[in-house]
Amino acid sequence: MSSKDQSPAPAAAAPEDRGRPEPAAIRFYGTSWLDHSRGYLPRRFLLGLGASLLAVAGVLLLRLAYDGLELSETSDWLRVLLVVAFALCSSIAFTRTWGSYRRPAALRGDEPSFASIKLIGFIGVLLAYALRSGIEAPGEGLRRAEYERALEQYERRGSRRSGNPSRRTKKRT
Q1: Is residue 165 part of a domain?
Q2: Which domain covers residue 117, as residue numbers?
Q3: What is the 3-state secondary structure (H, E, C) of 127-171?
Q4: 150 is a domain residue
Q5: Residue 161 lies in a domain
Q6: Staple 124 to which of 20, 26, 40, 90, CB 3.0 to 4.6 Å?
Q7: Is residue 100 part of a domain?
Q8: What tens digit of pLDDT does each residue of 117-161 get?
Q9: What interhelical angle do 122-135 and 76-100 show, nearest 10?
């Protein structure tokens, strides 16, 4: 037997905790957003910085593409159209991404139709992620509200129960 086989089995959930809601994990954060543990703050800072650096790299890449259009002596209207298209897509992508951190998924039903706009406007998505990381983990407020609502419902449901009905003593009249 190896030492892995001899590790103690995880304790079973206490009877009163069975059915208790679990917090939803957030990408790159897991469930550390709940109590801000396990390097939550440095992780938030580094992910925001990484998103900012990726946005700067994206701008440099778009600048390189624009310079390529200039070198190929493309007409002015096409270059202007390209800049306007990327600017509009980036602003729409920023607005949609920023809003997605505050609205439940049920209210964002048209999100798949904006996938191509978010792809073209990737700079807006990255900037929204970076700015939101400065406030909280992106999506933390929404997940926290959902988790607290689920906990409240669990507590209300549990407080109404008075035990096993078959064990109750029958009242004599």
Answers
A1: no
A2: 26-154
A3: HHHHHHHHHCCCCHHHHHHHHHHHHHHHHHHHHHCCCCHHHCCCC
A4: yes
A5: no
A6: 90
A7: yes
A8: 999 999 999 999 999 999 999 989 999 999 999 999 888 887 665
A9: 30
